[in-house]
Amino acid sequence: xxxxxxxxxxxxxxxxxxxxxAMTVFTTHTPVAAGHDRFPAPLVEEHxxxxxxxxxxxxxxxxxxxxxxPSDHNEPFxxxxxxxxxxxxxNGVSALHGMISRxxxxxxxxxxxxxxVPIGHITNGVHVQxxxxxxxxxxFDRHLGTDWPKKQRHPETWEAVDRIxxxxxxxxxQVLKARMINFVRMRLAAQAKRREExxxxxxxxxxxxxxxxxxxxxxxxxxTYKRAGLVLQDVERLIEMVSSIDRPIxxxxxxxxxxxDRMGKELIQNIARMTRQDQFATRIVFVEDxxxxxxxxxxxxxxxxLNNPRRPQEASGTSGxxxxxxxxxxxxxxxxxxxxAYDGTNGFAIGTGQTHANPSIQDERDYNSLLExxxxxxxxxxxxxxxxxxxxxxxxxxxxxxxxxxxxxNADRMVMDYALNGYLPAAGGVSCAMARR
Length: 437
Known about the structure:
This protein is α/β, with parallel strands linked by helices and 437 residues long. It has helices spanning 2-9, 13-22, 41-54, 59-64, 79-85, 95-104, 128-131, 134-144, 155-158, 166-194, 199-205, 235-242, 262-275, 292-301, 319-324, 338-341, 359-383, 392-405, 411-436, and strands at 25-27, 38-39, 77-78, 89-92, 120-121, 214-219, 249-254, 284-287, 304-307, 329-333, 348-350. The chain has 2 domains: 2-124 and 415-436, no CATH class; 128-408, Rossmann fold, CATH 3.40.50.2000. The chain is built from 19 helices and 11 strands.
């Protein structure tokens, strides 16, 4: 756009940037330094020399646009730096991510305190109608009114979940869980057939998971900072949890690693090997070929959605929002969206949000906190049943989750926030630019 304006108007680059940046909204998406693309200056020049010449910029001035320190010729060209310099409206994708981004990019704004860095936040949300299970959608129709999707971003809409009978909500969840288990079994059997495994392995696939066992789901991109294997690291403790007679736990994993992420792929391989061990064969499963259909089945059918990234590297995370919309309770590190969503009654927190400079120590502390949360909070609440067989405390927490999370973490609210806090101010920038003409 800047190039077109320079060519169309003949105005100098600085004046065009002032106008265009006033009407530009930029969203930064990761607090992980490696997630911000950086390129050597010669490579940038090779591919963008025509753009640079069209803007009438010198080599050094152009490269300085992508550097925190423009005169540092050893600093590579960073696309995020370029975007921040050419945008007057910038945001992270959760409150915590906004804070981390202000800290990360403070050197771009010399003379400003960290809290004055002009990067706000608009927390991500998910498209509700795409993720809520049809069976649960009907329950909401009956108790929230058939127009609830149009009013989903209003808190009062979700107050009506208290009118849902506990038995109705629990029965609906059990139907969804049974559907998910059947889906997983069919996928496991297909995987075994594709690998030409013995008939016994295929038959065992059809016995995987139990409707009665507490089911924990973990499915997402297998980036190493997300620590998919955190809960699996103590094998003896894991055997104890999955083989419990009275209060068993079972795990469903899914996801893919980036083709260049060797450690992520090794982690998937380790989990896959673990699923083939006799003591875990029907209690820990990995669903291959992860896609939106697999994700939809899992978030709609598990009891707990597990998220244990190494804080504060999760910018937002949205899989837990999808799970919450279907009655699964989040058990998560206080990172990303969960750091602002958790209130003590609408799910479970792993740890207290503290971090350690040594990743190994942080991993150990988080693992211990995860086990403590599972054994002292999650498992007892799930298996505490009344005379009718209903886990009243668990259902109450599900309703708290619907009431406090559904209206906040949906795409309707997110788009409205972008309109009010991003696009309309940027449109004001358009008006100012026009007035200067």
